[in-house]
Structure formats: C-alpha cells, structure tokens
Automatic annotation (TrEMBL):
Membrane topology: Multi-pass membrane protein
Compartments where found: Cell membrane
Catalysed reaction, written as an equation: protoporphyrinogen IX + 3 A = protoporphyrin IX + 3 AH2
Keyword Signal: no
Cofactor note: Binds 1 heme b (iron(II)-protoporphyrin IX) group per subunit.
GO BP annotations, alphabetical order: protoporphyrinogen IX biosynthetic process
Name of this protein: Protoporphyrinogen IX oxidase
Chain ranges passing through the membrane: 34-56, 62-85, 97-117
Amino acid sequence: MTSIFAVPRALIYWKREHDRLGEFGPLGDLTIRLYRFSAGLGVIALATGLWLGGLLAMPGWVWLKLGLVLLLVAHYAWTGAMVIAARKGRFAYSDKFLRIFNEVSVLGVIAVLWVVIAKPF
C-alpha cells in the first residue's frame, strides 16, 4: 500500500539524480525493485480481497470500494509505465506533475477509507 505513495516520490528523486549524474544511478534500481515487489503483493491483496468478499454477494458499498481500488490500480499501472520509461532514461513528466500525481493517490486512499467507514449504501 505504501508503494502507491513511495514509488511516485522515488521517481522525483530518481529524476533529480539522473539530471545530476546523466546516467542510471542507485535510486533507479531501488525504485524498480520497490515497484516490482509491491505490484506482486498488490495482485495477492486484490485476489484475496475478492475471494474473502464473495464476489457476487457483496453489498453496494463494497462495489464502490472495489471501483475506487481499481482506479488506484490504474494509477499504479501508470506509475509502472513511468518507471519503465525512466529505466530507458526518459523522464517525460516534471517534478511538479509527479508531486501532484503522488497526491492523487492520497485522495484515492482517503476516498476508499471513507467508503469503508461510512458504508453509504
């Protein structure tokens, strides 16, 4: 879960390191490893959550939560695309964009937590 926040932040520092060194440095390796490790755990978490939730018998609020989680998955997949591009030495986004991109995931997690606590329907 923390990698949703950590990987975009690591991309910012990796971009700065790449600009300074002009080559692939240790932050790049760290970012790639963190992304891969967390992606695998995310797949396990999604599969386990669906299994425990009993896919067809879930109340409405759980479907909303699942939709929000899928948006977070899409966000993390986009992060993965940025990591792959950065590995090739292409940093297409500015520091400012990456910071905003990082905060979007925070809002997504807050929305998921609100749905779980409030159970709006």
